[in-house]
């Protein structure tokens, strides 16, 4: 590095640049240490900064910094939103919930202040064509408001269909607000979003990545998938807006996912989540979201919305997952496209399996990312050794993100079982405390098992050494993949 500096700079200037760079690196190391992160991760960043000139600094600028404690909106506006959109939490004394579920309810409320709601109904979609058929009809029927938020909003056939409906509704006087993730929707043309914006759809990218904010924004993505229509119908889950959820992948293989259609008091929590993100993008005074919520159900399906993001004090969803896994008595069933767990969650799953709880993890045989697949496979050996049953979904890409525990608790939404979802992305999941929903989700899980291959430890450990070595190397980058 020093010889390169002498080529491009005069002799007297090169030592100054070297000393300036050295001071910069020391400053970054002091910041890393002062943040009191996981010691292993802190040491890794310190080693990278010291041993990889220039590259270490660049990697830290893009992937190493923390957003903990930063405010998306003012505390005053957040309190106002909570008052406007969140109903009073149901009393646990009036509900027939196991003690373990009661603890999860209290934990989620402590983390996000979102209430437990009971007056709800839910419809489960595992087929993209069914979900979009329902969503399109609900959009067409909208009377007053449409709030739509997706990580990926593709300008393909299904994307144009949705966009045309949004434009039509905006022209008819419906207030249509759209948030899409700038990086997630990179492949969609500017012209596509400009078309909606020019025709009355209030459209905004989340964390637009431009210079000079590139390093500040590229690592923090909004992965949520929410739709709220007329403050009475909501959608949440793992499906983005893209043709692959309807027609499968280019090679003809399936794209399997899970999504929910909701009605009831939980809609208030969905609107609150959308409003926080919307107010972050725009001046709060410029967006007056409706506060009337029709009450037309008298069901008994208990659920909460749990959100998390890199600015939160705690890793909200990760903590709820940990609490749920640790409280399991009989079974833990997980579906995830990418399995890159934190050490804490992996230890919890291993402890459950070693305690003879039925722990099953379903991952795709082939994912849409070779790197993530290799990183995922690096964790399989340890899982199998602990007695965790691991299955690979064979028909195509398994993109569903769900966890079903015992007979009452289920969670699903946008959160993958990986570092990025737990620590770097803005995510949203439903926490559902309902035996009927749990039973339906278990049935879906076991139907998917029929199209899976169960991995055996004796065979898995015989994988070629070059593949195992590559998996181990890629695993080093798991926290930033």
Structure description:
This protein has 481 residues and is α/β, with parallel strands linked by helices. It has 3 domains: 2-64, no CATH class; 75-84 and 121-297, Endonuclease Chain A (Endonuclease, Chain A, 2-Layer Sandwich); 316-480, Endonuclease, Chain A. The protein contains 20 helices and 19 strands. Helix 6 (99-112) runs antiparallel to helix 13 (316-327). The protein starts with a helix and ends in a 6-residue tail after the last helix.
Largest sheet: 8 strands, mixed
Strand content: 15-25%
Question: How many beta-strand elements?
Answer: 19
Query: Remind me, CATH topology of the largest domain?
Result: Endonuclease, Chain A
Task: State the main characteristics.
3 domains; Endonuclease, Chain A; globular; alpha/beta; 7-stranded mixed beta sheet; about 475 residues
Question: Strands, helices and their partners?
Answer:
Layout: H1 2-8, H2 14-34, H3 39-51, H4 55-64, H5 75-85, H6 99-112, E1 120-125, H7 128-140, E2 145-150, H8 157-171, E3 175-181, H9 190-198, E4 202-206, H10 214-217, E5 226-229, E6 233-237, H11 244-247, E7 254-256, E8 259-264, H12 266-281, E9 302-308, H13 316-327, E10 331-335, E11 339-340, H14 343-354, E12 358-364, H15 370-377, H16 380-386, E13 389-393, E14 396-398, E15 402-405, E16 409-413, E17 417-418, H17 419-424, E18 427-433, H18 435-449, E19 452-454, H19 457-460, H20 465-475
Parallel strand pairs: 2-3, 3-4, 7-14, 10-12, 11-17, 12-13
Antiparallel strand pairs: 1-8, 2-5, 5-6, 6-8, 9-18, 10-15, 13-19, 15-16, 16-18
Helix pairs in contact: 2-3, 3-4, 5-12, 6-13, 7-8, 13-14, 15-20
